[in-house]
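ARCHIVE CARD
Drawer: 12
Card no.: 0347
Subject: one protein chain, sequence and derived structure
Cross-reference: see card 0346
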Amino acid sequence: MRNISALRVMEEFQHVQDRLDPMLFAIALLAALAAAYMAAGLYRFFYESRGTGSQIHRAFPLLSLAITSLFIGVQLSLPLSLGLLGSLSIIRFRTPIKEPEEVGFIMLVIAASISAATFNFRFLVLLYVIAIASLFLTRGARKWKWLKRSGLLIVTLPDDNASESTRQISDLFPAHFGQSRLESASSRDGATSLQWAFSNLKTDVTALQMAVRGCAPVSSMHVYLDRSGGQR
């Protein structure tokens, strides 16, 4: 009985070997690898300077090769693919994804690898054309005021000269922000608290704080950035 089972396994492997064209396999791997390097370049160009993620783009080349090989194996033999997927189910990823764009780029690499594994190279090219266009569109959309907030500036001033100090502080903003707007103001116990939303921080936070403190008697000041690493 064991001999029969072993013979069937050998026949299955021989069947896979007969169906696998090494040249097509190499072409699929090279296409997936090129797509992965392009995805890594896009990630670095659009997000690396602003993110605090795990630099996941370094794993894109190996991910693409592994995924492409996996899906080629799935196409060649259903019994082998079921065993392969079962063995891969023991893998657990413990490192959390720190940036939301990492999910999108991982899915982009997976989609490109599957396209390469199924030899749909036209789909692969079309996928990247639309992906690149969407990334540039997203970058351009940040110029819209309602998508462009970078953070908040909260300043507390004495009530005695709050009006004059508010004007002086607002006059500083064009040198430090692309856009700004006063969102709220409140007064309590002789102190006025003002909150501005700003976008496109042109200088660093330290320079902003020094400039504000130099023109007004500020009791306290807080700068909140919408994302980590977003000082510039």
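Annotation on reverse: Confidence is low (pLDDT under 50) at residues 228-232. The longest helix spans residues 22-48.
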